[in-house]
Amino acid sequence: MGEYISMFDDRVRGPRVRNNYDVIVIGGGISGVQIARHSAGRGLRTLLIERDDFGAGTSSATSKIIHNGLNNMAHQEFRVAAESLKEGRYLGFAAPHLVRPHSRLIVGRHWSKARTAFFGAGMAAHGLLGRGRTEGLPADNQAGAPRWVSKKDLLRELSWLDPTNLVGAWRHDDNLNIHPERLLLALVTTVAESGGSAINHAEVTTLLGGPGEGITGVRVRDRLSGESADIKATVTINAAGPWVDEVLGAWSVPARMEITQHKGVHLLCGDIGLKEGVAVRGENGLRILLTPWQNRTLIGPNEVEVSGNADDASRATVADVKEILSALDSVSRRPFDRRLIKTTISGVHPRAKGSKTERFEIHNHASEGFRGLFTLTGGSWTLGRLVGEQVIDRVLADESDRLPPVRSFDSRYVNLATSFGDYESVAESFEAALVRRPEAELGREERIHLAALYGTDHLRVLELISENPGLAERLAPDSDCLDVAAQAVFAVSDEAARGLEDVLDRRLAVGTLGPVPAQTVGKVADLIAPLLGWDEVRRATEVAEYLANQKLDTAVLEEL
Ligand SMILES: Cc1cc2nc3c(=O)[nH]c(=O)nc-3n(C[C@H](O)[C@H](O)[C@H](O)COP(=O)(O)OP(=O)(O)OC[C@H]3O[C@@H](n4cnc5c(N)ncnc54)[C@H](O)[C@@H]3O)c2cc1C
Known about the structure:
This protein is of the alpha+beta class and 560 residues long. 34% of the residues lie in helices and 22% in strands. It has three domains: 160 residues, FAD/NAD(P)-binding domain (3-Layer(bba) Sandwich), CATH 3.50.50; 208 residues, D-Amino Acid Oxidase, Chain A, domain 2 (2-Layer Sandwich); 134 residues, Alpha-glycerophosphate oxidase, cap domain (Helicase, Ruva Protein, domain 3). α1 crosses α9. The chain is globular. Flavin-adenine dinucleotide binds next to α1, β8 and β16. The site of flavin-adenine dinucleotide (FAD) has 39 residues, from α1, β8 and β16.
């Protein structure tokens, strides 16, 4: 089994880290985590290594939609459309508390790219493709058939739409990713429960081995302590999203994946009263989504092709924001009220070479003399499970002579580690949370908030409150955010969070809902400083850095 490497002991999810594995996965975004889940699920000794924090890359910049493949129909990718429909259903089974049905109006205007009638025919075909897609899901997670909404009815619902050139809309259903960062954590917990290990703040700096010999593992640097270690693996899988070429380049593997990178920006706005999502194409040709989500509205994304290191393209520019607003204003009766914009969210979509969609490719570098190294390009949140399954199937097919025998693993109808079991409805599973641990003094709304975000782990957060009632305190009492102090403690003690961004932006809700008030940042710093051994100087530095960083996402709004 190899020797232990102790430097990650305080935060490893799953068994302690050793110096030898069957499979190492580089990158803790949705693709890497799903690959690790399938590797561990098959019984392979698996280690997932993430440079920053789980979900800190593109996976937290999503439009928060589990797509139903309609967009792929428009690109005539019928196989991907069918796969997306199925994957939405499997995710609904996996985590019904975090993946909820959501309806959207696809607005038809005279300049819409697909003629409305033509689009309707596509929707009908799509409906047939998706028959039975919600079978077996909880009663309140069902989706309906596509239906036409007349111009008159549409304007009744969306009175802000400019009626000029308006035809009507198609209403269809997909799923909403309620808290992508927590869904990713639920998957990491699932990896750990299957026997795999996952570490964050650990960067792969070098691939070990060489031409002929193949890739035999990785050198990993703990970004918290600065220490490095070599870890051997039969197979190394590069799932570093937009950074796959940097991982290859760090070792100078002569192959480059030359992925196509598209930066996408969203505007996170206050609640504008939408009851369902809207998709509309502006006069500038940009198709934007307006998505009601957690009492906020997400507007975007735009799409700009970028090149080079994705780190350099990770912020929104004034041009990005203006492009989105120009699209929105061109279909509205009056300009969108800029004061409603809370912040910008941006990320770089790592697409397979030349692709404009979620299509993914698996590359075995054995063809270049680097046996044992695989790279994934493309993929999406929606297709993440399929990516994980197919990457591991491919690895097993190509490397069966060097890997141990494996067990079968069908991930399609399995609850994630923290998901509620067999309830008739999601609401029922939340209601059950109201009567558990009655001694924890917490209101109804906060209890449901915890159940919705943590699944069965909400009990462990309640346990902290039972032990220390002070942890029931709301972290942002002047806002609609229901986060409580116990969540910050749990993030560090049980969820491997090691900094304010890890806690506020990826474990709690507050950092995903807009700029976090300085007072809340301070409160969370007070809670986690003793757990992380921060002295007063370190605490102050961490708070200042968090606030400065969050300002970078809002500064662009001042230039509008
Ligand atoms: C604006 C936008 C909106 C989107 N909306 C949707 C949507 O609504 N629905 C949907 O299904 N998909 C959506 N997508 C696509 C989806 O978000 C991405 O395809 C997906 O998140 C990519 O995941 P990933 O794991 O490949 O990459 P990432 O999430 O970027 O993960 C890669 C990870 O690798 C790590 N890494 C890099 N280098 C190293 C190293 N040397 N060592 C260790 N780790 C390393 C990074 O830190 C990063 O966390 C959207 C994408 C964008 C940009």
